[in-house]
Amino acid sequence: MQSRNVSIGLVQNSCSSDFSANMKKATDGIREAANKGANIVCLQELFSSLYFCDKEDYAPFQLAEPIPGKSTDMLQPLAKELGVVIIASLFEKRAEGVYHNTTAVIDADGTYLGKYRKMHIPDDPAYYEKFYFTPGDLGFKSFATKFGRLGVLICWDQWYPEAARLTALTGAEILFYPTAIGWADGEDPKINNMQHDAWETIQRSHAVANGIPVVSVNRVGHEGNQTFWGGSFIAGNQGEILFKASHDKEEVNVVTVDLARANSTRIHWPFLRDRRIDAYSDITKRFIDN
For the residues of 125-180, what is the DSSP string, one character each? Predict the structure, then answer.
């Protein structure tokens, strides 16, 4: 079968409280990735600000913007100029008092294709996202771009096999996870390493279960009471690590994947063929009481 090679750019940055500086760093990273041959460039979760969800505070609501809005207005001409698809995670103001954690997808000709709103919203120490974000209501979806059909999920979504499966079932050929996750200050290093390994393993399992590549782009740097662990990576169709970034450096990397490989993978590991869709109705229940 003829290859369908697509080059993926991963922009792993630290962030500050300066929107303009963060945006410049991101756009410089997109340019660098394009110069290295990237067709699709993914930015990390909430790349234009600090990760403000480490505490509950009303001030960060001022950071939110409509989508499309000022950030997509800046990124669309860049996508067209460079001929790359851009996946951009933003803080969306939908209406007065209604906010979402949202990713915009911009095609290689600069067209705004649409957005995905984060479905799973955490509420844990240092991740008080329920204070800020309304759960997504657009469902699980994928976007037809010049370089393939992309599925986009966001951070906490990555722990849910249901989200990966439903996005894959829309025809997604790659799953992207813009992410912001790190190690808590003062935590036992063994616990930190265990948490990181679990994070990587669950996403690799999504690649295996669905027979498509998975791309996760995380931030680096110390914010609040945690150090973001970076480690942005791409897993191939059978879960193998094709690339992994450092834990502590800003990096722009480009990795090529073959979208045509999905057919061969799914023929030899026919998980989609063998799904018992007639037997899964209980998945919609919170818990099955025996």
Answer: TTEEGGGT-PPP-S-S-EEEETTEEEEE--GGGGG-HHHHHHHHTTT-SEEEEE--
**Burial class of residue 214 in the structure, from the number of CB atoms within 10 Å of its CB (0-12 exposed, 13-18 middle, 19+ buried):** buried
Q: Provide the CATH number for the domain around residue 36.
A: 3.60.110.10
C-alpha–C-alpha distance, residues 56 and 51, integer Å: 12
In a domain, 283, yes or no: no
Is the distance from CB of 242 to CB of 228 less than 8 angstroms? no
Instruction: Tell me, yes or no, whether 97 lies in a domain.
Output: yes
Q: Which amino acid is at 109?
A: D
The residues pairing with 105 across neighbouring beta strands, listed in sequence order, are 87, 114
Question: What's the mean per-residue pLDDT of the chain?
Answer: 97
Residue 289 inside a domain? The answer is: no
Range of the domain at 267: 5-277
Mean pLDDT throughout 125-135?
A: 97
Q: What is the pTM of this model?
A: 0.97
* Residue 195, C-beta contacts closer than 8 angstroms, at least 6 positions apart: 183
Catalytic residue positions, numbered: 45, 118, 155
pLDDT of 61-120, one tens digit each? Answer: 999 999 999 999 999 999 999 999 999 999 999 999 999 999 999 999 999 999 999 999
- Short-list 115, 36, 41, CA closest to 78: 41
Question: Does residue 212 fall inside a structural domain?
Answer: yes
- pLDDT band, residue 290 (cuts 50/70/90): confident
What is the average pLDDT across 190-195?
96
Check residue 231 and report its DSSP letter.
-
Closest CA to 50 of 186, 157, 182: 182
The tally of domains found in the chain comes to: 1
